[in-house]
Amino acid sequence: METPDRAASPAVDPWPGYFADRGHPGARRIGAGVEGVVYALGDGRVAKVWAGRGPAEPTRQVYADLAQHRLPFATPEIFEVQEHEGVVVTYERELPGVPLRGDSAHEDFPRELPVHHKDALLAVLRGLASVPGTDAMRRLTVQGDDRPLWQGHDRFQDALAALVARAVARHGAALAVHVPDLDAGTARTLNALTKLADAPVTAIHGDLVPPNIHTDAAGRPVAVLDFGFCTTAGDPAFEAAVTAAVWDMYGPHAEEHTAELTRLFARELGHPPAALAVYQAVYALTTYDLFGLDDGDGHFRWCAGQLRRNAVFNARLP
Fold first, then answer.
1. Which CATH number is correct for 3-93, 3.40.30.10, 1.10.357.10, 3.30.200.20, 3.40.50.740?
2. Could you write out the DSSP letters of every residue in 130-152?
3. Residue 3: predicted pLDDT
4. How many whole angstroms separate alpha carbon 145 and alpha carbon 136?
5. Nearest to residue 159, comparing CAs of 228, 241, 266, 238?
6. C-alpha–C-alpha distance, residues 82 and 268, integer Å
7. Which CATH architecture has domain 98-309?
8. CA 30, CA 15: separation in Å to the nearest integer?
9. What is the value of pTM for the model shown?
10. How crowded is residue 41: how many other Cβ atoms within 10 Å of its Cβ?
11. What sequence ranges are listed for the domain Aminoglycoside phosphotransferase (predicted)?
């Protein structure tokens, strides 16, 4: 979940000096997210200083796999990987365009979603769904988990079901305080998930929040960045469901926007509405504890709200 920097940079940031010593004297901090801090280096390159785990071999291969396809937008490419005092640093190509808009945690979205935003989302979803899932994508670990998502599984829905079980086992007691009948709702979600029909296995970004889609002056998507939070191979309906839910998470019209985008993606991309509801519940059940364990944390509060409203979790869909 990488966003343009809004917080002040550290009083003493050692990384510009590090990059200057390596031939990049103009390095400047331009963004930060869950995975790390990004610096512009000039000459069409950026560097990411990774927090926690750096990019394992599959991440670099995933970028290469994406680059083999003629997508209508650019995707990241890693040129070099270094390590400095135990911290991983990657040198990557600078992606074109500007963020489609800011994150809903920092600015309110208007009630009416702009047409060019919806068109951009459809273009990105169609583009990613055109890329077959690869072995490298299957080897990725999603945020908060301890093993590759597909490990031990041949079917995406079964891999997700195992992920839900692990995630709820981590801190389900904290979630149950805010979500009535958590165990029953989780069981209903898992039952519906494992009964979903097989679907094509394609590339999934997993975190298509507004800052991760760059557009040109005409509003066309020209780059998709910050893969890794929930990147994998799987059902493109999962990507559509998550995108509809996370596009506006915290604005005053967030529920309306999620419902509108869910209907749009079902209609334009042919995804069954019930499958989208299942995947939205799955996303909430697997990410609720990544940033906090009570409703003082915005993401935890959002996930709990998603579950309380979800039709599958609450048995309001057949």
1. 3.30.200.20
2. TSBP-HHHHT---TT-SS-TTTT
3. 45
4. 17
5. 238
6. 43
7. Alpha-Beta Complex (3.90)
8. 12
9. 0.93
10. 20
11. 27-249
